[in-house]
Amino acid sequence: MLSGAFSTLGRYWKPLIGIALTLFGAATLVMIAALVVAASAVATHWDELTSDSPGSPDAAELVPLGIAFGVLMIVGLIIYMLASAVVQAAVPVVLQEAVLGRPLRFGEVWRRAWSRVWSIIGTVFLTGLIMIVPMALFLAGFTGLMIYTISLGDEDGVVPLIVTGLVGVLIVGPVAVWLWVRFSLAPTVVVFEQQRPVAALRRSAQLVRGTWWRVFGVGLLAYTLASMMGFMIQMPFQMAGALPGMFDPADLDADPSNGTIIAVIGSVMLLSFLSQMISQLITAIFPPLVVGLLYVDLRMRTENLGPVLAEAAATTLPEQYGPPPPAHV
Q1: 254-270 burial string, b = 16+ CB within 10 Å, else e?
Q2: Is the pTM of this model over 0.85?
Q3: Cα–Cα distance between 124 and 326 in angstroms, integer?
Q4: Contact call for residues 43 and 261 (beta carbons, < 8 A)
Q5: Residue 220 half-sphere exposure, CB side, CA atoms within 13 Å?
Q6: Mutual angle of helices 13-41 and 106-115, in 10-degree steps
Q7: DSSP code of 152?
Q8: pLDDT tens for residues 28-82?
Q9: d(Cα 90, Cα 23) in Å, to the nearest integer?
Q10: Contact 182, 212 (CB under 8 A)
Q11: Quick check: 285 and 21 in contact, CB under 8 A?
Q12: Is the CB of residue 276 less than 8 Å from the CB of residue 234?
């Protein structure tokens, strides 16, 4: 699976990296623009808060700052969620053509991925909701019991209740993981089979049945490798962003102004955005690519998909591109 993922990424890096870089780059630019607008909107209040005037700032002075950065977080969440959904839909689109050995242009990837993006969002939302429900019910019940025990003044019953809660977490956690693995193929099903979210979840559960441990192991390895690569990419940027904090202004015989402080903070945030975007290229492409190959492999094993793919490649591949590669890639 990993070899096939790297091979596919090597052959189709232009549409994969291109669409991810375009989307996450645009999302980062929008976030930077929103940050500039938010900073401009609260500049006066920032000067008041950082001035040397005695007394702590009033709550009314903090409200604009809270609203500005709250709106910024919401905008960022929506933008990155939409960009991630398009990339998650684009990976199976590229994989569909990769298993047939056909070339694919950027515009075609964008058109087909955008047509399935809302189904992808719905599928991811339903999967997350299904995973959260058992944990939310457990936490609600545990919190209720804790409040009830404390209200009775039974201090001796608190410790056993905490132990029971830890045991419950150890039970509910694996259930959430089991559900995640069971529905992990749903985004790929949405693109490959043009299914709606609920039907895609059912189809994923059908394919995973009997091979849960294999899907879990391959998926865990893919996400672990992607996280490690993303961390290694982010580390130099984080170190560069931490450099200003290593110097004491007193040692430099300087008294930085508010503008200098804001510039330093802005530079650190800019480096953080850039490192996050570069890391996101890996974490957003590689795991879905491995999961997509796992979906194809499971269909080959259980539904005899191999001959169908070979026949499709033989009948649709243009002659100028030569013979198709093996069906596993």
Answers
A1: eeeeeeeebeeeeebeb
A2: no
A3: 31
A4: no
A5: 10
A6: 70
A7: T
A8: 777 777 777 766 665 555 555 555 455 545 555 556 666 766 777 777 778 888 8
A9: 11
A10: yes
A11: no
A12: yes
